[in-house]
Amino acid sequence: MNEATQLLTPLKAPVPPMFEAALGYQGDARYVAFYWQPAGDEVMYDDGHASGDGDWWAWIEFENHSAVAPHLWLPCPQCGGRGTTNTLENDPCDACDGSGLLPLNLGSSDFEADHWLILDRQERKFYVAPIVTARRFLQEQWPPPPELTPEEEQTFFEAIQKAVEELRHAWRPPGAGELEESVRQSMQTCTEMVAWLDGQVEEGDTRSPSSAREEK
Ligand SMILES: [Zn+2]
Question: Ligand 1 center to residue 209 CA distance, Å?
Fold first, then answer.
């Protein structure tokens, strides 16, 4: 898996311990991606097997938090982060205006994402990657499906059908009280995440985009 993460760009944003819980991801994959989708205007998670919409308020708090926002930049592809494409005259690069950085696009109400934010839940690290790379990376974290004989396939298929049928009988719509409780819990986790991020700012982390470039 370690060579695999070489395809991804590490992001230095702090990783809240309750990040995926606040965002509403309940799966057990090691790597899971998050991004904003303009259709429906919601935050999405995708672990390569399961995807769905998460808790949008937690994403908005995260993305705009002063401990996180200064890290949401990428080296400008046109000048390779140097700020100029003309080293002799040192003219500022027109793609990034000479800053060497471009804002990371994880999606917004108006624009489709061109990168996904990937969380390594084991090492507690963030990465970003262009969507195609991210998608392939997330799918590759799962073992390939086993080769089945036609008989095994039939047995498997029948077992799935049976399970679906059982679920259909057992399912009851959640009551208003249950829904309310689930939203309340999710908001509580979000509040804890913001408090944790506030703590990261107080530790004197005031990196700006320009100093993020110097670290490169
Ligand atoms: Zn540039």
Answer: 14
3-state class (DSSP) for residue 45: strand
Q: Per-residue pLDDT tens for 182-216?
A: 889 999 999 999 999 999 986 555 544 444 444 43
Using alpha carbons, select from 127, 128, 124, 116 the residue that is nearest to residue 19.
124
Q: How many A from CA of 77 to the centre of ligand 1?
A: 6
| The dihedral sign for the CA sequence 82, 85, 87, 90 | negative
Report the C-alpha gap between 69 and 67 in whole angstroms: 6
Tokens of 216: 């490169």
Cβ atoms of residues 107 and 37 within 8 Å: yes
What residue ranges do the domains of the chain occupy?
4-215
Q: C-alpha 26: how far from its chain's center? A: 14
Task: State the distance from the centre of ligand 1 to the C-alpha of 85, rounded, in angstroms.
Answer: 7
